Amino acid sequence: MRIMVSFFLVVAVAVTVAPAQAPEKDELAPGKRMVRAVQFPYDQKVKFTLFPTGRLEGVAGSAEVRRRKTGIEVDVELEEAPAASQLKPDYRGYVVWALTPAGKFVNLGAIERKGPLKTTTNLPSFGIVVSAEADLKTTSLSDPVLESGYPAGKRRIYPMQRVYYSPGPGK
Questions:
Q1: How confident is the model at residue 150 (pLDDT cuts 50, 70, 90)?
Q2: With 90 as the cut, is the pLDDT of residue 120 above it?
């Protein structure tokens, strides 16, 4: 009886000491990527730096999201990105995607090389991915070049969820 009680005690301690953790970015399966979907608070600006995925040199950007009564305003700025055709000759520009916690990509609009994209969506929670595309009205992601990380600033009080995705055929 003592052996059985000791065994259950050891198992219970092992389970409580080593809880399961979601993999960090370094531990992702090969070919997988991760962004954080943010649940945007009402009437607060949430700013992001868009980080390069390593597919294209010299591309950088930022995003600002604000939830209003009329929807969620999304402003994405590319800073002098090289022509998307440098990645593949048939690529015409960059598409900005909202990636929902369920893993669904929603095309928010396109930017050819630089400048802002200002749009509105009704999605309450998402991460941002920018991809190089041949068809700027596409419904499926091909070649991600930028993605959002943590929101900027010291006070990260927004509920966030990791969303894992596989880059499209262009990767």
A1: confident
A2: yes
